[in-house]
Amino acid sequence: STCHSVGLITKKLAGPLVAEWTFDQAFERFIQKYPSGFKDAWYIPSEREWREAAHTEWVKAFPSTETLRKMVASSPDKAAAAILHVVQSAPKKLVQPKSELGVLRDALAHPENAKPFMNALVDMLDAPILTSGLYGDYLHVLTGLPLSKDGDLAKWPTVTLIPFLAQPDKHILVKPVTLRKAAKALGFDLKYTATP
Fold first, then answer.
1. N or C: which end of the chain has fewer CB within 10 A?
2. DSSP string covering 129-194, please?
């Protein structure tokens, strides 16, 4: 309503977050499920191997950010196709096939529109230190790509997917439901916003 938008009616402020588990309790739950921790025979195939396989596909396509930069400069359509191939070849679906992957596919279908996005991506991946300016440029260009169908590029999984595939040591794939649930259980305020 108008009253909400001008601030005349405000939501009641929530009290401080109360953790459902302590760190030790959360760790214990993890160890109950995966007794050997991150080296557990069940953890590796269910949580790690398929993510590593997706990153390996990225490295095969783009051994370095310079490789990607040159490909974007010489053949943006080839670069866009290679990125989509990596995204789609992941052993497990990293994003929702229709609402997230389909929109990303639509956005990268026109290389002339996608080239500024890919340049912003390369600048971000190539930076020794990730700054809010670089990430902001990447976010602005990606979410501004024209779409031929209805859709929304401004979703956390869509925005964080490609950086995660390229550099999982620096970027995380944000799956809001899972991340918010874990943060709430630990009493951690993510300062979450629905739009990246």
1. N
2. S--HHHHHHHHHHHHTS--SSS--S-SHHHHHHHHHHH-TTT-----HHHHHHHHHHTT------S
Q: What 3-state DSSP class applies to 59?
A: helix
Place of tokens 């789609």: 88
Report if pTM > 0.85.
no
Location of structure tokens 């499920």: 33
- Token match 């990225």: residue? 58
For residues 86 and 161, is the Cβ–Cβ distance under 8 A?
no
How many C-beta atoms lie closer than 10 Å to residue 137's C-beta?
A: 18
Query: Residue type at 168?
Result: P
Q: Could you tell me if 159 and 121 are in contact, meaning their C-beta atoms sit under 8 angstroms apart? A: no
